[in-house]
Amino acid sequence: MTTLLNRVARPVKAASRQAQALVIAGALTVVAGAPSASAEDIKIGVPLSLSGSVAFAGTKMREAMELAFEEVNSSGYLGANKLVPVWADDRSSQPQGISVTQQLALRDNVSAIVGYTASNICLASLPVAQELKVPTLQSDCVVPGLDAIGNYVYNGVRPYESFVLELVDKLVPAKQIKTAAVIYLRENPVFTRLAPAITKAFEKNGVKVVATEAVTGGGDADFSAQLTAIANTKPDILAILTLGGQVGPVMVQARRAGMEKTLFIGEQSFDSADVRRIAGPNAAGAYYPSHWFADSPLPRNQAYVKAYRAKYNRDPDTFATNGYNGVWLIAQIVKKAGSGDRAKILAAMESPGVYETVFGTEGKTKFENRMLTMTPFFFTIGADGKIARFEGK
Amino acid sequence: MLLQQLVNGIIAGSVYALFALGFNLVLGAMNILNVAQGAVFTWSALVGFYLIKVYGLPFPLALLAAVAAGGLLNMLIEVLVFRPLRNRGGSAMSTLVASIGVSMILISAAQTASDAQVERFPFGTLPEIQWSALSVRLTFTQAVVLVTTLATMIGTYLLLHRTRLGKAIRTMAFNERTAKMLGIPTESVARWTFFLSGALGGLAGVLLGLMFSTVHFLMGEPYVLKGFAAIVIGGFGSVIGVIVASIMIGLAEVFSTVIGVGAFRDVIIFGMLFMFLLFRPNGLFGKDEEVRP
C-alpha cells in the first residue's frame, strides 16, 4: 500500500517540480529576453516495457533513467542544452514496440532514442528505428544479432551468451560438474538461443546434459512438472534461463522437487535483489555473470548507487543500471554532437571515442561494431543471500 | 517419478478447480463470462500478501480477509458494471466486453500497487515441512492447499444443493424469469453469486501464490483460459464436472511433460477444449435442459 501511495504521490511531486522549473524558466525568459541561440531542448525518445510481462524490468529502468536525466540536466553537463525524455510504453508487446518507435520518430520527432527493455521487442523495433533513420541506443536487450541491424542502431549492452559460456568453462572444472540440466523460457529469443548454446558448452566441457525442459511466460508460475522430471535425473547443475520474475520461483520449486544440492547457473536475470529475496536460502549455489555490480568501487558507480538508494530507498539492479547507463551514454554522445540534430548525433556515434560508464572495472569503454565493449564479472550467491565474486575456484 | 507427477497434477488441477468453480457459478447462474475473475484472483493474492508482509497478520486471518476481499470486489463489479448492463438489456457480448474492460482496469491497478514487481509470501508464512514416502514429496503448503481445496469443493457442492441460496442460484441458472416468478430475490441472489465466485477465485489466488512462491499482477491471466476450458470440458453449471475437468487439465499438463511434449501442453489442453466444443458441447456432466434458453 505504501508503494501505491508512493506511486500516486510521485507523479504529483514530479509535476510540482516541473511546474516550478517552468515558472523559473518562464521568469528567466521574461528577465533575459529570448533564450540564447545555443540553448536547446533535445527530445530523447525512451521506449520501455512499463506494463505487461516485462514491466518488472522496465519500471526499474525508468526509475534509474529519470535519475540520470535529472543528473544530466541539473549538472549542466550539456551546457545550456537539456535532454527532454519522451516516455513511451511498449506494453511488453512487439507490435506496440514498433508503434511507439514510429510515434517517437515521426510524431514526436525525437533527436535520438534510448531504451527498450526486452530482446524480442528490440528485434521488432530496432529495424524500424533504422528505417526511420533515428540514432538509437538500445540499453537492455542481450539477444545476438542487434549489431547487424544498421548504422543507426547502437547497443549499450552486449549479448550475455559469451559471458555465460565463459562461466561454464570456469565452473565445470572448479565444481567437478558431471551432469547438467536446462530449463528455459520458450517464448523469448534470448533463452531459446541460449539453451542450445549452453548445452553445447556443457558438452564441450565433458558434462552430460541429462534433461532439457521448457516453460511458458506470462503469469505461469507452476514449474513443478518440469522440475520433477529434471530432479529425477539428479543433475549437478541446473541452467535456469528464464525472466527475472520466474527465476526465484524456479529456484524455490527446484529445491522442493529434490534438487537440494544442485548448483544453478543463469544470466542477467539472476542479477537482482528481487531474485535473492524471492528465492531466499534456495538461491544458495547460484552462479551468474554480470557486467556490473552494486559494490563496484568505481567512483561513478558509487555515486550512482548512493543517489539511487536515496531516491528510491532500495538497491538498483542490472535493469535499472542498464537504463541509467544508457541515458548517460546518450548524453555523452549528444555532448559530442553539440546539438539535437539527428545527423550530428549519428556522426558523433560513429566517431571513435571513449565513454564513461558505471560498468566494468575501469568504467571506461567504447563501441566496437556498434556494441559497447564490456568485461564480465562472475558471481555466486551464498546461503546468507549475499553475493560474492567467483574467481573460478 | 510418476507418482510424484500424479500428485503434482492433482494439486495443480485442484487450484484450477477452485478458480473454475467461481467462474462457473457466475456463468451458470447469470450467463456472464466474467473474465475479470482472473484480476479478482490476483487482487486477493495481493491483499493476502500485504496483510501478512506489511501488517504481520497470521496466515489464517489474512486468508479469510483476502477471500472476503475477493468476494467483495466481485460483488462490487456486479453492482457497478453487470447490473446496470442487465437492467438495460445488455447482451452476453456486452457483458463479456465489459468484463474484459474491468479486468484491464484491475490488472493496471494491481501493477501500480505492486510496482510491477514479483513478490512472494514471506518465508515461514506456513511451516517449511516436507514429507517423503514412496518417492513422493509433499510439502506442508501443498497439504494445506489440498485439504482447503477439498473442503471448499465439498462446501460449494453442499451450498448449491442443500441451502436456500444454492437452490435460488440453481433456479436462476435455469431461468431468471422463472426464478422471479417464484419469488426469488434475483438481485440479491446475483450479488451473493458474485460474492461466492470472487471468494473462490480469491482463495485460489492466495493458495497458488503461496504454493508457487509468487505473487504478481499478471498471475491470474493463465487461469482465465484454463478455467474456461474446465467449464466447457466439465459441463456448464456442473460442480462435479468442473472439478473433474480441472483435475484432468492439471494431469494433462503434467503428463505432457512426462512423455516429453511439455512444450505443447497448451496445445493439448486447448485441443481437448476444441474437441469438446465440436463433439460434446455440453461437456462431461452438462445436460441439455440445464442450458439457459
Question: How would you describe what is shown here?
Answer:
The complex is a heterodimer of chains A (393) and B (293). Chain A is of the alpha/beta class. Helix content of chain A is 46%, strand content 18%. Chain A has helices at residues 2-32, 55-74, 94-107, 119-131, 161-175, 189-204, 224-231, 244-256, 273-279, 299-312, 318-337, 342-350; strands at 41-48, 82-89, 112-115, 136-138, 153-155, 179-185, 208-215, 237-241, 263-265, 286-290, 355-356, 364-365, 367-368, 371-372, 377-381, 387-389. Chain A has a 7-stranded mixed β-sheet with strand order 7-6-8-9-10-15-16, with helices on both faces. In chain A, helix 2 (55-74) runs parallel beside helix 11 (318-337), helix 8 (244-256) packs parallel to helix 9 and helix 11 (318-337) packs across helix 12. The longest helix of chain A is centred in the first third of the chain and has 31 residues, at 2-32. The termini of chain A are far apart. The model of chain A is unreliable at 1-37 (pLDDT under 50). By secondary structure, chain B is mainly alpha-helical. Chain B contains 11 helices and 2 strands. Chain B has helices at residues 2-30, 37-53, 59-87, 92-114, 140-162, 164-174, 176-181, 186-211, 221-234, 239-258, 265-279; strands at residues 130-133, 136-139. A two-stranded antiparallel sheet of chain B has the order 1-2. In chain B, a hairpin with a 2-residue loop joins strand 1 and strand 2. Chain B is globular. In chain B, 53% of the residues are buried. At the A-B interface, helix 1, helix 2, helix 7, helix 8 and helix 9 of A face helix 1, helix 4, helix 9 and helix 10 of B.
